[in-house]
Amino acid sequence: MQSTFKFSLIFLLASFLSVTALKLNVPVPGPGSTQLETDGNAIVSWTVEEGDPEFISIEIQNDISLDSFEFARNVPTAPGNVSGILDEVPGGDTFYLQAVSVKSVLDVYATSDLFTVVGEVPPITNTGYLAARETEK
Description:
The protein has helices at residues 2-17, 127-136; strands at 23-24, 28-29, 41-47, 55-62, 68-76, 81-85, 92-100, 108-111, 115-117. By secondary structure, the protein is an alpha+beta fold. The strands form two sheets. Strands 4, 5, 7, 8 and 9 form a five-stranded antiparallel sheet that branches. Strands 1, 2, 3 and 6 form a four-stranded antiparallel sheet that branches.
């Protein structure tokens, strides 16, 4: 029992040591765009502090469907931003960004607030989600 507690404590301390101060902002429309839209240009920015990783990858996540889209891979953090395309990202208001390790998307350094992408919204097959969404309105 005591060795399990020690292991848990060591794991907890190690996870605190790997926390970064990286702050990821919601994307903004790129040049020539007035809104974030499917297959449109976008700019993602962040702030870094000493101890943050030198390189990150940026993933777009859908908070409801859990779909994932790659935005940028192996990006240096020092410039504080990257431009890209919202390639095949469907319309919706439940997206957020994740800054992840270049070695594993499971190592998440930071997440952004939710944002909306304008475009065709795919049909939803989960009727439970639809009913819950309608009662929220």
